[in-house]
Specification:
The chain is mainly alpha-helical and 170 residues long. The protein contains 6 helices and 3 strands. It has 2 domains: 2-62, no CATH class; 64-169, no CATH class. It has a 3-stranded antiparallel β-sheet with strand order 1-3-2, covered by helices on one side. Helix 1 (2-18) packs across helix 2 (30-54), helix 3 (65-96) packs antiparallel against helix 6 and helix 4 packs antiparallel against helix 6 (161-169).
Amino acid sequence: MAVFAVAFVFAFLLYLVLTAGSGNFGFWAPEEVLFGAVFSVLTAFFAKKLFLAAGIMPDGRALNPKRWLLFVLYAIGPLFFEMAKANIEVTYRLMSGKINPGIVKISPGLKTDFGITMLANSITLTPGTLSVDVDKQRNIYVHCLNVKSKDPKTGDICSCFADWIRRIAE
């Protein structure tokens, strides 16, 4: 039941954020809220089926509002800032031709699969980097547009992402 509740709340809040301002007198029309609730119930039903089929059972950490708030702060703070900074650097590197591509291994020290997945996705979203593989020891192999050293530290590749994700996912 927890999987269904979390999926419903997440889907409904996301729907409300994406449709904000669609009402005539308020943020949402009553029909819009009703449709969002129905859509969220269907989404939660299918999400529960997928989680159970995959054998994934989220624990109580997924229900913690502090983690949700930290995730939102991470998305609009460090992730957005690093993406903007990387866009400028990639533009400079491509226009100047000063690139040194390569694949590097980082060891972020994250303990959960969710944390590793979130970090790999954050790295891939950042221009100029692409998560290529994750091994059994939870090291991430990253293709970088400009490799500065053969043995970089985790912070050189993904800034403070690992620290934020550790607070969110573990």
